[in-house]
Amino acid sequence: MKKLIVTADDFGLSLPVNEAVDLAHQHGILTAASLMMGAPARDDAIERARKLPRLGVGLHLTLVDSCPVLPPTEVPGLVGQDGRFSTDPVKFGTALFFSKDLRRQAEAEITAQFEAFRKTGLTMDHINGHQHFHMHPAISKIIARLAKDFGNPPVRIPVEPLFPSYTATSDRFRDRLSGWVFFYAQSRLLRRRVRAAGLGVNDRVFGLNDSGAMTETRVLQFLDKLPNGTTEFYFHPATRRWPGVDNLPDDYRPMEEFAALTSLNVKGKANALGITLVPFREAVRRA
């Protein structure tokens, strides 16, 4: 059986992102969205989500390239003078690994993000991390401990299978190989910890090697090669670009991703292949 979770990350980042999530769920194949609790358009996202009971809304943990939920004075080691998290995940991740004080601040901020999600009244459909930072050893440990108090939501394991990915696209074999090696190695501890905590996980994802470029053509290619089991496609859709520091990277194609999510060709192919479109909680059983 082929179960497919179709997720939009960065829910709450901006009104154009929220609009895309809303429309792609109502008129397209989108089944889930990952909510950023410190993002500028969070309140609008929550309001929309409450009107979309079939949309699986999860927690998109943010410790890089965003804003904290806690006041910056409570997490001074996590933010710069502008009150925002670092935009360098490698540098920050290394510092976090070696600093007990930074890990303490990170746990406080993550706990605050969990609690902020609880206050929305939404059921936590899943957990993942902005820029996949939930793979960090210190963060995965915190997630495994906290999740039991929030309904044991499933956790994204961000590994894209090499051969289905390459045979579907026939491009960038070396990039896809290096991506597979990196994410497989980095996610092993995450997988082990969350499964030991009784949390469900997906079998694989598509979108790692084509982040920001999950166009209609690419999605159709992946659907043709979709393995059995539980797969997640993840996107960064928006109805338009917007000004400001929180805009998506210049090389991303958010409007094309939105078009793919609402494409009749994509929806028709998923139906023809007998693929079941579901949110995380319906697709993934606990370990």
Automatic annotation (TrEMBL):
What the entry lists under Pfam families is as follows: YdjC
Determine if Cytoplasm is one of this entry's keywords.
no
The domain of life is: Bacteria
The portions of this protein that span the membrane are none
Q: Does the keyword Ribosomal protein apply?
A: no
Query: Which Gene Ontology BP terms does the record give?
Result: carbohydrate metabolic process
Which CDD domains does the record match to this protein? YdjC_HpnK_like (cd10804)
Coiled-coil ranges from the UniProt annotation: none
GO molecular function annotation: deacetylase activity; hydrolase activity; metal ion binding
Its required cofactor(s), as named, are:
Mg(2+)
Q: Which UniProt keywords apply?
A: Carbohydrate metabolism, Hydrolase, Magnesium, Metal-binding
Q: Which NCBIfam families match?
A: HpnK
State what protein this is by name.
Hopanoid biosynthesis associated protein HpnK
Q: What is the lineage of its organism?
A: Bacteria, Pseudomonadati, Pseudomonadota, Alphaproteobacteria, Hyphomicrobiales
